[in-house]
Q: What sequence folds into this?
């Protein structure tokens, strides 16, 4: 799963462009983010227990990580968009919208879905939150405005790119093994190899993981099911020379499943499989 980063140059650019970047202050806390916006002081303070979002010195929200992403005016209502995370890498941070309506109490609205990686943008006078589709799982778009709050805009279907083949894998190997499904020819081969097990494999391979192109033209990627790392994991090896894929996965409380059978795997792929499977030997 491609995790949202804790900080980004995009966030800084948004705040700088608006003239709202307050910088990092110093206090009794280990870290403080101080933002003057819409006549209010917005602070994210850090201590041993996590981070605290404060508005005009009043606590609004706390979690392990709290991050301010952007500010916007939606339907004449001043808003601050951020994310909140309880730590770890199994789940992406949860977005929130803090509204500062004139003459009324501030209101914090949390995104309605947990453990869904989303990006935020502004479109047609609304905030739009997008969860990109993944292999085996549709994405979705949500809008937000002060009247309706978060509202689904419908699903986004995942589609492999038929124009991306094995040559594209060599020139641009994905950082995450689920990225293999972006390549049309490779996605078709994976689905054919997995058959009825394709859905189970996709659920694991889109979890927490990484991949790389190794010597000899072998792409090796591993991943685990969120909250089940060490118990439910998968490996995929793509031989860019022979244009063949090899997969294995470890279901919960069950033996490793290998496709195709191990004797069909080339030596480099078997080595990667053996190293990966050593956890359960």
A:
């Amino acid at each position: 799963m491609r995790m949202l980063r804790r900080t980004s140059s995009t966030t800084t650019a948004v705040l700088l462009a608006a003239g709202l970047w307050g910088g990092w202050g110093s206090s009794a806390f280990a870290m403080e983010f101080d933002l003057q916006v819409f006549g209010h002081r917005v602070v994210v303070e850090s201590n041993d227990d996590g981070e605290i979002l404060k508005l005009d010195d009043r606590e609004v929200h706390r979690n392990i990580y709290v991050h301010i992403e952007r500010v916007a005016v939606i339907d004449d209502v001043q808003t601050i968009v951020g994310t909140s995370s309880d730590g770890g890498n199994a789940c992406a941070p949860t977005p929130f919208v803090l509204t500062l309506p004139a003459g009324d109490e501030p209101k914090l609205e949390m995104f309605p879905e947990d453990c869904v990686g989303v990006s935020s943008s502004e479109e047609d006078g609304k905030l739009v939150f997008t969860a990109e589709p993944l292999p085996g799982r549709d994405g979705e778009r949500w809008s937000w405005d002060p009247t309706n709050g978060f509202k689904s805009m419908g699903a986004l279907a995942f589609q492999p790119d038929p124009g991306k083949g094995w040559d594209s894998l060599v020139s641009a190997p994905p950082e995450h093994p689920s990225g293999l499904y972006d390549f049309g020819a490779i996605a078709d081969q994976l689905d054919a190899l997995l058959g009825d097990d394709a859905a189970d494999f996709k659920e694991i391979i889109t979890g927490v993981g990484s991949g790389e192109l190794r010597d000899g033209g072998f792409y090796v990627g591993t991943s685990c099911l969120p909250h089940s790392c060490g118990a439910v994991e998968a490996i995929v090896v793509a031989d860019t020379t022979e244009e063949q894929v090899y997969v294995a996965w470890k279901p919960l409380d069950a033996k490793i499943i290998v496709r195709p059978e191990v004797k069909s795997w080339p030596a480099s792929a078997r080595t990667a499989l053996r190293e990966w499977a050593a956890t359960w030997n």
Observations:
- The first helix runs from residue 9 to 17.
